[in-house]
Specification:
The chain is an alpha+beta fold. It has four helices and five strands, in the order ββαβββααα. 36% of the residues lie in helices and 27% in strands. It has a five-stranded mixed sheet, with helices on one face. The longest helix is centred in the N-terminal third of the chain and has 18 residues, at 27-44. The chain is globular, with a radius of gyration of 14 Å.
């Protein structure tokens, strides 16, 4: 069972999915990860969706998903002390690398924007 929320930026480039346990005791970690994902999504005109699961697990994951393709893992917060900026920087680097993959031509179009924000 899961629930969550999403932010739509009217795009065709896909979306970022944030997966977390609904019973997380550290709301600050989820907030840092979510804010970093929202910032990246807004800059690249991607949607973002936070999905929470009743199942208990510690890591928070961020995936990229485009249309009906399988989600691609971009980031995993294993309970560390990462700041929002460190998480954002990690996402930016992964999105840049992913933009070279031939299967993700939509990201190729936003590659310059990924570079611009670095």
């Amino acid at each position: 069972m899961f629930s969550g929320w999403s932010v739509m930026f009217a795009n065709h480039n896909g979306k970022l999915l944030v997966y977390a346990s609904s019973g997380m005791s550290d709301g600050e970690r989820l907030k840092s990860v979510s804010v970093a994902a929202e910032k990246m999504a807004k800059e690249l005109r991607l949607d973002v969706e936070v999905v929470t699961f009743e199942e208990q697990f510690t890591p928070i994951y961020i995936y990229y998903k485009n249309a009906e393709e399988e989600p691609i893992p971009l980031y995993c917060d294993k309970g560390g002390e990462s700041t929002m900026q460190e998480i954002y920087d990690a996402l930016r680097k992964m999105m840049f690398v992913l933009s070279f993959h031939p299967k993700h031509s939509a990201l190729k179009q936003i590659r310059e924007e990924v570079i611009h924000f670095s």
